């Protein structure tokens, strides 16, 4: 049996013009995870990441913290969906700015309420957000990465760095969950959280989901973030 560690990127820049950039806290979360694993002697045989900047920055932080020098395999199918495009698809003629300040409680709730609704419609095939693949193609991008791991890394420890949507999709696929259940997983996954799959050449099995062992101390409780 091998073990696949799926890590959501560290805190990015929610509400900023460029979300695809780790915040200072996101950098610290990533390095802390790497140090946590190094302290416990965990090493990886291979690393796979999406191609987004926040994925590369998260891997770089983990590598610094753990003293790792592996070159990651970049897998575009592990990139996140475009939440802005999803929301715009169900708000014709209106921009995201109509939701108000994303940093306010009201704006934050409105953003994720509409995102949840838009994801349901995209998954059902009733909307086609600009610049995004069909949901079935998005799922294939994720499951093809899982197939690659099973085919090429039997018995090894593999690290996969991605985003909440692809990780929730992977869990939903492995467990055979409904679209609504998969969305619920997506909405709850935390920055730098670790999900573990055990795998053999035929299938993956879920071991843990959305854990933060590297932040499990009172002094680091303010490091726990979701967006």
TrEMBL record:
It comes from the Bacteria. Signal peptide: none annotated. InterPro entries: His_Pase_superF_clade-1, His_PPase_superfam, PGM_Phosphatase. It holds the Pfam family His_Phos_1. This is Histidine phosphatase family protein. It comes from Hydrogenophaga luteola.
